[in-house]
Sequence to fold (409 residues):
Amino acid sequence: MPEQTTAPLPVAEHVARILDAVEPLPVFDQPLLEALDLPAAEDVTAPMALPSFDNSAMDGYAVVFKDVADAREDRPVHLPVVGEIGAGQASMLAMSPGTAVKIMTGAPVPQGCDAVVPYEWTDRGVAHVQIGKAPTEGQHIRRAGEDVRVGDVLVSEGTVLGPRHIGLLAASGRPTVRARPRPRVVVMSTGSELREPGMALGHDSIYDANSYMLAAAVRAAGGIPYRVGAVPDDVRGFTEALTDQLVRADIVVTSGGVSQGDYDVVKEALSGLGTVWFGDVAMQPGKPQGFGVVGDEETLIFTLPGNPVSSYVSFQAFVLPALRKLQGRRPYERPSRTARITHGLRSIPGRQQMVRGQYDASVVTPVGGHGSHLIGDLADANCLVVVPAETESLAPGDTVQVLLLDQEF
Ligand SMILES: Nc1nc2c(c(=O)[nH]1)N[C@H]1C(S)=C(S)[C@@H](COP(=O)(O)OP(=O)(O)OC[C@H]3O[C@@H](n4cnc5c(N)ncnc54)[C@H](O)[C@@H]3O)O[C@H]1N2
Ligand code: MOO
Fold:
């Protein structure tokens, strides 16, 4: 393997190169429930008003307001009941003054009606009704278009569709919505020392944390993870496993095997293909990186370093923006906040440090040490403190930028 001599790539440049290479996935008409949590790929405008017709908000009697304006408990108004309208049973289209029509919640109010008297204010009469309280004009009538007018934007492009959006689209008669599908992400970890959780460990083996962590991060980012699990350090085995998986991948993410070791199979297997860039990015953790395309379909591949914290931080810095762009989600990068740091720290010159931290109310406390193996500390963190490459130390109380790890965006 030739020695790495080129200067590390600045983080922002690596992100820019990745985003340049990624095109949003093609758009599909998705049945409404399939579109839950997907970003809409169209501005949906209202094809109809909501409510679509004037209708009753109460079970009661449709009346002409003037007829009942003086109704009081001690001086009730008596009206003949000339008909009945249930929801979905609009047999009666108009009514005359001096009459009442039984009406149910949601039923269209007949022409001429300008108030609804709820049952509770009446004797619930069938042939005649006694009304003991006056409604205001228009009371309990839900007007056509008072909620949504034709042409209103129901959801704008890029909106991540939640249950309320799905409900609104259904209410407006849309059976489908254009959205981008979830990216399919094959996650493979490499290392002959790796064992599946639940299996016995030898004195020199460890459990495969990364394939689980990365697959979970894919799902949290809106993708469909296909976790292959651990592949041994063997170029042929890795190449075969990768080739088998390409058919179901929009992206492949591997962990491990990209540094300077004697068994760095990922680098060895993919270097030959000439379409994957390997090099150092000026970030700690997460220095050794690889990014490119593999296979006939030119499937995107990220080869992340094996140390668990390096793998996770690399995912957040590099894979997540790509996943978001594939889905048409914006912004591409995690939300950041300005915070005061509680403790001072030293940083490696020339590398953007991503320090694990606990953020709360504009204050951040660093969690654990620098080591890229400290997965226990990683689990305690809820943010990454971004220490720029040119900053060599921070003092308590200094202002920093933090990336929020658990925030929906
Ligand atoms: N001579 C040098 N050695 C190393 C350098 C260097 O520049 N020169 N860089 C170090 C840095 S920085 C990192 S990060 C790692 C990256 O190494 P690899 O990507 O090749 O990863 P491995 O060697 O396979 O593993 C590193 C470490 O992480 C553990 N690991 C790997 N996969 C998993 C997994 N799925 N679950 C849990 N833990 C995993 C593995 O056992 C190792 O301890 O290289 C440094 N070395
Ligand atoms: O870059 Mo390594 O990721 O420092 O641990």
The first strand starts at residue 28 and ends at 31. The two ends are 41 Å apart (CA to CA). Residues 308-327 form the longest helix (20 residues). Residues 28-50+146-179 form a domain with the Molybdopterin biosynthesis moea protein, domain 2 fold (CATH 3.90.105.10).
